[in-house]
Amino acid sequence: MSGAPAIEAVDLVKRFGDFTAVDGVSFSVPEGTVFSMLGPNGAGKTTTVRMMTTLSRPTSGTGRVAGLDVVRDADAVRQRMGLTAQSATVDELLTGRENLRLVGDLYGLDRPTVRRVADELLERFSLDEAGDKVVKEYSGGMRRRLDLAASLVATPPVLFLDEPTTGLDPRSRVELWGVLRDLVRDGTTLFLTTQYLDEADQLADRIVVVDHGRVIADGTPLELKDRSGRASLVVAVSRGDEVRAAEEIVRSEVGELHVDPDARRITAPAEGVAALTRIAARLDEAGIELDDIGLQRPSLDDVFLHLTGHRAEETADAPAAVPAEAEEAVR
């Protein structure tokens, strides 16, 4: 791993007429890591990806991929990166194998290499049995895996994934997460945009939160959670008639707390593992049966709500004057 970042943006700006879709976005992504750009529709995620993948020229600022400038070295950047866009771009009238071989031909790979790589990717993405079926017969999850496989035909060191699991069922999402983890273990650098907080939490080494074209937070998932508040101590009591006794024990250790009698749940500000251990021991000594006890950190959903005042899945309203090009790109 070299010292230079695999992906870097410095003060990226993109304007469409009077509308600013991306407003001074900066980030740096080390090699072999997963970087996630998190935000709702309209936040500028897709516009940023388009600039970083040479599909749209920045109004100002600098973008680099594998050390190459996305404007001055656009051709070389395209040789070193792959892109999986929001909508699968595979040809429905070709088989999965034919799609991958076509991509290899477009990259100028020799025929034996194209055949070998296509077979390896079909196996890697659990598509080998469906490789000779036309893509229109594929499920949504299979198409998404094939689309991702197509972006890897030329073995790029950097891969951009623009909301790759949108529209997939929960099982297909989890399967795709496993594939992405395998890619990172093999040394690929991933740039992932998503609206799904659990996806960023599961995959990302570092996250930037964007809203209305600006970065409003940057950090690891744990750092971002810590910014929205301390962890909570949660005690779930098995028997309703023991909630009051459990409450008195917890209160004597931590003071302020909240009790939900119907859910038999006691929540209090966490005072560390030592306090948790003491409380668990005292509840056990008192013979109070528990369903659960532990520390609960804020979720990334809590983080986003804390930072923006709205949840990540809420769709941002684009200004009425946004040009048609911006409506397609700004997501």
Automatic annotation (TrEMBL):
GO MF annotations, alphabetized: ATP binding
Membrane topology: Peripheral membrane protein
PROSITE patterns to which the protein is assigned, alphabetical: ABC_TRANSPORTER_1, ABC_TRANSPORTER_2
Annotated localization: Cell membrane
Keyword entries, A-Z: Antibiotic resistance, ATP-binding, Cell membrane, Membrane, Nucleotide-binding, Translocase, Transport
Domain ABC transporter: 7-237
SUPFAM superfamilies: P-loop containing nucleoside triphosphate hydrolases
Pfam families assigned: ABC_tran
SMART domains cross-referenced by the UniProt entry: AAA (SM00382)
Family of this protein: Belongs to the ABC transporter superfamily. Drug exporter-1 (DrugE1) (TC 3.A.1.105) family.
Classification via PANTHER family: ABC TRANSPORTER ATP-BINDING PROTEIN, DOXORUBICIN RESISTANCE ATP-BINDING PROTEIN DRRA
NCBIfam families found in the cross-reference section: drrA
Name of the featured protein: ATP-binding cassette domain-containing protein
